[in-house]
């Protein structure tokens, strides 16, 4: 609890948390908040490309759909993709990091070399290749993003496990005969949790951005899905007239990523006293 | 030092080899039969069998993998499924455009980022510091393709002061190719007018690409300088009467910059990724547009080759960065021993 209080004392982190909570609420209640929830799939050709007005706050898109509603509905898929990807990446990366960090040997070497291979290419490039090979679509994009993000968790947990395995409490546990799996899961993992949490928060922002790029390039969400990246891609043909069409989805991406980045920043400071000193 | 450089190169090789194997595996999980894909929709079973034999697709997988590795090492990345031309050739034609853009963006991001970070640290908790902090967090939150479009909207469409797309105006054509870097080739050709035009085309894509890097560099420089400022030698230099600026420029920055240099290496990956989307927006004829075109035409050969080439470039840059770091701070090489 004290960690949370300390986090909230940092105005920047508190702002990040507020943005993230706001986005989560918007995502949960999206169908009730959106003025035209049916505009996820319905089109109204007669009112296409209308500028922002009291009726359509963010204007309408090329098929006459309310952008305000679609930006709200898009919060859902953005958060859903990010949460799924980060969760799956943790499920893969954390055990790899624990196993590789515990003892030196062929298992550790193999696991970390495989991790290095995935880190040898920038994530987006690898995700593009994977997403395309798996047949483009939001599912493939999520698998691709997971396969490119788990190494970061493996690296983080590997470093933490390495650091902790020589500590006194681990020696003591081994001395009284605790099984390595027990030591790793019940004693090492909780100590590595802050680092994983920081990684996960920053990973959320990163995943939202990368997923948006994939959507923009046509390897992510497919029409008529209310996806932010896809909307910006669709808007390009209607510039410069329909500036609102491209502007608002991009602002939504920025706000949500900003929220996660600020929160991750604050968490990192709270988790690492050494960094806290340099910020002051 | 030479030993350190060789060690560092040796460390990069296994990952690259693994990447070659990974791309091979990926090319085999392509939905469907690669021979059938190559043969096209109208092929007869006999034609497919013929292609299978010709490309060695009927050999055992391990043998195919070995052949693949040998081909890649000798620079043969196969032929594009879209144009039929060698992928390595097409990539070499486009690589300079991406490298030039990335390099200009990186230089821009480094100069401005280090300056902002330094100024912010010297103005610790002051108004400039807060401003830099906002820029450094906000810069990482903006989707590059969106920023690119917004800049186009304002500077190219609305005000019409900067070009909308491409590397150089079509009326100029391309200068004689020496390095493939337009900013160099136009000068070598003795055409300052073309140089200026190429530079004008560079402005928007480079700014868009540089922003996330600028943010990261400013941030790490700031914290590095803040930490260095607390060291005893700074106290001593201060006592010896060094002025604030001289102190910062000579003593603090050099000690703080090693962290930043590491970040520049890591950033390169982000820059190449960013370049893909930004090139697509600005019609920049580089690897990014090539990758996007490969996606649209389901050309997995080209896409995997791009992945490989980017992996190699990435590895080279990271080795260079480690060497640069060891040159700035000799303790790095000693520690690695």
TrEMBL record, chain A:
Residues 75-264 form the ABC transmembrane type-1 domain. It is found in: Cell membrane. The chain crosses the membrane at residues 12-34, 78-102, 123-148, 196-222, 242-264. This is Peptide/nickel transport system permease protein. The keyword Acetylation does not apply. It is a multi-pass membrane protein. PROSITE patterns: ABC_TM1 (PS50928). Keywords: Cell membrane, Membrane, Peptide transport, Protein transport, Transmembrane, Transmembrane helix, Transport. Gene3D superfamilies: MetI-like (1.10.3720.10). It comes from the Bacteria. Coiled coil: none annotated. One of its GO terms (cellular component) is plasma membrane. The keyword Glycoprotein does not apply. Belongs to the binding-protein-dependent transport system permease family. PANTHER family: D,D-DIPEPTIDE TRANSPORT SYSTEM PERMEASE PROTEIN DDPC-RELATED, OLIGOPEPTIDE TRANSPORT SYSTEM PERMEASE PROTEIN APPC. One of its GO terms (biological process) is protein transport.
TrEMBL record, chain B:
Residues 95-321 form the ABC transmembrane type-1 domain. This is Peptide/nickel transport system permease protein. Keywords: Cell membrane, Membrane, Transmembrane, Transmembrane helix, Transport. Belongs to the binding-protein-dependent transport system permease family. It comes from Humitalea rosea. One of its GO terms (cellular component) is plasma membrane. Its main location: membrane. It is found in: Cell membrane. PANTHER family: DIPEPTIDE TRANSPORT SYSTEM PERMEASE PROTEIN DPPB-RELATED (PTHR43163). PROSITE patterns: ABC_TM1. The chain crosses the membrane at residues 101-122, 134-155, 202-221, 264-282, 302-328.
């Amino acid at each position: 609890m004290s960690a949370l209080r300390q986090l909230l004392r940092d105005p920047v982190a508190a702002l990040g948390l507020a943005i993230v909570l706001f986005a989560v609420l918007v995502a949960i209640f999206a169908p009730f908040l959106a003025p035209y929830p049916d505009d996820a799939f319905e089109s109204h050709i007669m009112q296409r490309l209308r500028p922002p007005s009291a009726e359509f706050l963010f204007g309408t898109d090329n098929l006459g759909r309310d952008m305000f509603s679609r930006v709200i509905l898009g919060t859902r898929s953005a958060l859903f993709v990010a949460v799924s990807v980060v969760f799956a990446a943790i499920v893969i990366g954390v055990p790899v990091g624990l196993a590789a960090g515990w003892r030196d040997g062929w298992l550790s070497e193999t696991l970390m070399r495989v991790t290095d291979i995935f880190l040898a290419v920038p994530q987006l490039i690898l995700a593009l290749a994977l997403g395309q090979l798996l047949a483009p679509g939001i599912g493939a994009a999520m698998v691709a993003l997971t396969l490119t993000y788990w190494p970061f968790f493996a690296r983080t947990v590997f470093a933490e496990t390495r650091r902790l395995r020589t500590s006194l409490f681990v020696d003591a546990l081994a001395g009284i005969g605790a099984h390595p799996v027990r030591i790793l899961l019940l004693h090492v993992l909780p100590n590595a949790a802050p680092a994983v949490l920081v990684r996960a928060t920053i990973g959320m922002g990163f995943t939202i951005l990368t997923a948006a790029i994939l959507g923009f390039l046509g390897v992510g969400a497919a029409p008529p899905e209310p996806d932010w990246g896809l909307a910006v891609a669709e808007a390009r043909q209607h510039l410069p007239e329909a500036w609102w069409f491209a502007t608002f989805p991009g602002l939504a991406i920025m706000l949500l990523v900003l929220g996660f980045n600020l929160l991750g920043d604050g968490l990192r400071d709270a988790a690492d006293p050494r960094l806290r000193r340099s910020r002051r | 030092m030479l030993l350190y450089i060789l060690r560092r190169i040796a460390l990069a090789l296994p990952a690259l080899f693994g990447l070659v194997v990974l791309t091979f595996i990926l090319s085999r999980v392509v939905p469907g039969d690669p021979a059938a894909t190559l043969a096209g929709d109208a092929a007869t079973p006999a034609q497919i069998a013929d292609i299978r034999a010709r490309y060695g697709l009927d050999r055992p997988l391990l043998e195919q993998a070995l052949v693949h590795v040998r081909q890649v090492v000798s620079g043969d990345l196969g032929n594009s499924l879209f144009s039929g031309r060698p992928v390595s050739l097409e990539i070499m034609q486009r690589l300079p455009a991406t490298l030039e853009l990335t390099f200009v963006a990186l230089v821009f991001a480094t100069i401005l980022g280090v300056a902002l970070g330094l100024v912010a640290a010297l103005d610790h908790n002051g108004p400039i510091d807060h401003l830099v902090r906002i820029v450094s967090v906000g810069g990482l939150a903006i989707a590059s393709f969106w920023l690119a479009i917004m800049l186009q909207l304002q500077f190219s469409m609305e005000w019409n002061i900067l070009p909308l797309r491409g590397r150089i105006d079509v009326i100029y054509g391309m200068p004689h190719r020496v390095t493939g870097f337009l900013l160099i080739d136009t000068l070598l050709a003795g055409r300052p007018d073309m140089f200026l035009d190429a530079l004008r085309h560079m402005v928007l894509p480079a700014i868009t690409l540089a922003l996330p890097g600028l943010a990261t560099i400013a941030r790490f420089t700031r914290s590095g300088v803040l930490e260095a400022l607390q060291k005893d030698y700074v106290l001593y230099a201060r006592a010896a009467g060094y002025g604030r600026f001289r102190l910062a420029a000579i003593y603090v920055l050099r000690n703080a910059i090693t962290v930043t240099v590491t970040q520049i290496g890591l950033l390169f990956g982000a820059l190449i990724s960013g370049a893909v989307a930004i090139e697509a927006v600005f019609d920049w004829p580089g690897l990014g547009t090539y990758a996007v075109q490969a996606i649209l035409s389901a050309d997995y050969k080209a896409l995997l080759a791009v992945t490989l080439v980017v992996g190699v470039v990435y590895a080279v840059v990271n080795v260079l960065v480690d060497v640069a770091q060891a040159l700035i701070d000799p303790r790095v090489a000693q520690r690695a021993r």
